[in-house]
Amino acid sequence: xxxxxxxxxxxxxxxxxxxxxxxxxxxxxxxxxxxxxxxxxxxxxxxxxxxxxxxxxxxxxxxxxxxxxxxxxxxxxxxxxxxxxxxxxxxxxxxxxxxxxxxxxxxxxxxxxxxxxxxxxxxxxxxxxxxxxxxxxxxxxxxxxxxxxxxxxxxxxxxxxxxxxxxxxxxxxxxxxxxxxxxxxxxxxx
Amino acid sequence: xxxxxxxxxxxxxxxxxxxxxxxxxxxxxxxxxxxxxxxxxxxxxxxxxxxxxxxxxxxxxxxxxxxxxxxxxxxxxxxxxxxxxxxxxxxxxxxxxxxxxxxxxxxxxxxxxxxxxxxxxxxxxxxxxxxxxxxxxxxxxxxxxxxxxxxxxxxxxxxxxxxxxxxxxxxxxxxxxxxxxxxxxxxxxxxxxxxxxxxxxxxxxxxxxxxxxxxxxxxxxxxxxxxxxxxxxxxxxxxxxxxxxxxxxxxxxxxxxxxxxxxxxxxxxxxxxxxxxxxxxxxxxxxxxxxxxxxxxxxxxxxxxxxxxxxxxxxxxxxxxxxxxxxxxxxxxxxxxxxxxxxxxxxxxxxxxxxxxxxxxxxxxxxxxxxxxxxxxxxxxxxxxxxxxxxxxxxxxxxxxxxxxxxxxxxxxxxxxxxxxxxxxxxxxxxxxxxxxx
Lengths: 190, 438
Hints:
Number of strands of chain B: 0
Structural class of chain B: mainly alpha
Order of helices and strands of chain B: HHHHHHHHHHHHHHHHHHHHHH
Oligomer: heterodimer
Shape of chain B: globular
Strand content of chain B: under 5%
Largest sheet of chain A: none
Number of helices of chain B: 22
Largest sheet of chain B: none
Number of helices of chain A: 7
Order of helices and strands of chain A: HHHHHHH
Helix content of chain A: 55-70%
Number of strands of chain A: 0
Strand content of chain A: under 5%
């Protein structure tokens, strides 16, 4: 009944965390929703290139690079979205057969490694993007777009992934109650 | 620290992280980060991120979402139903006709769909109830669906080939052409097996009392019209590629257009279906991209430390002879295939195996086809064969996982025979690409 974000003083810390995790889920869900249509843009651009080259012998300067650029950014940034839907493949040879308690402990052991990887992307990727921005680095091709926006996607993707990892772990270890059956891994198409 | 010790530590900690439940993509990335920093300090971390960035500029990588999107659009287009209907009408009088129709339908679908799970699910929904209603034995009905579904690995446009081509630095177009003949050969072996078995044990597949196969010839010919649409989609992808109109990446875009047109003609291109295809594409592709990022970081650090060279030296120095080394690779793939997904096996072994095979004088395209053959085996073999789990998901109640796994043995045998044939006669794979314009 309260407006989102207005933390009531009577609320326990636990429900505050729940709200936070829900926000993170919603954020990455939104990112995935926004990025999805990129594949439609990529498909249409490529059709356009094939037809204009094959039919009219005119090749574009932007399709090849533009589609690589757009899809790279999209599927990089969707890292947290895929984590939200538990689509990153894992090996269940041992983990799948453990008790709930053992799983929770292992989740806590795994956490620092996940954070280490995501933080590397954020910090080192951030430095690389910033340097590229200062230098005004471009791709050096006929179309020649600036590179820094793509490089900046690496730290941004790191942040989105980091947030989702934290939210998932909080749910997995039971600090935040799981509100859904979706926490069970979805069956992927591969 | 010696490279041997580094190798052991990296392998042990990587397997450790996998066993405690880290996703493959993040376990690989994390090991890259930890060992990169441990061995080289901050520059090691820069290496990790640079490897990720380098991948982002790769032109071939976009064919992954394109072919996944194409598969998702076709999945709900109802094309599989059409093909199965036509083929079972024509194959009705053949012993085991419906099972033969399943293999033919799978082969045609495999030429449009490059993603593994989609096929078993679609064909399972269409064909399994039909076969069980006709009184086919469970063994026959389940086995042919699992085996047929695996053909999507070998027959282009296969996502497995794209990932192999990217990892091994081999032309995707060449790989696609190399997969066609072995794929058709395997399908022919399945069909022959089904016909022979049903000839000698007719009780496995009771002939139809009435139904489709008794259609007058005119109707049967009219039914063939339904194959125009699938033929059009197949031509869009393979034709444009073979004739050189489109690069392999662009063929993906052309395929998406073909799939969309086909779905629209069948009035299945609804807003909901497109929406579903888009989200599935985003999730699946993101998973694959991140796997590439992680494994590229891991392999990058390991190569810099001299590990890749070390393993290559060891493998080439083995007293097995060139063919012995290839056999050893098959063995590694088969064993790993029982436990890990194809994608993990590919990303971890290809950067090491491919240079060794090339050094020993083998064609990396041929090795790619061998890899796909192996992954078909792992796709249906117990205890984790994904095909069985996909099929279980859509099978009627009363069909258990062990029913499915016990049905696959004859097909597993045929796959191993086909693998042996490919090793003995590389021309089965390499002839078609050699006729292609380069």
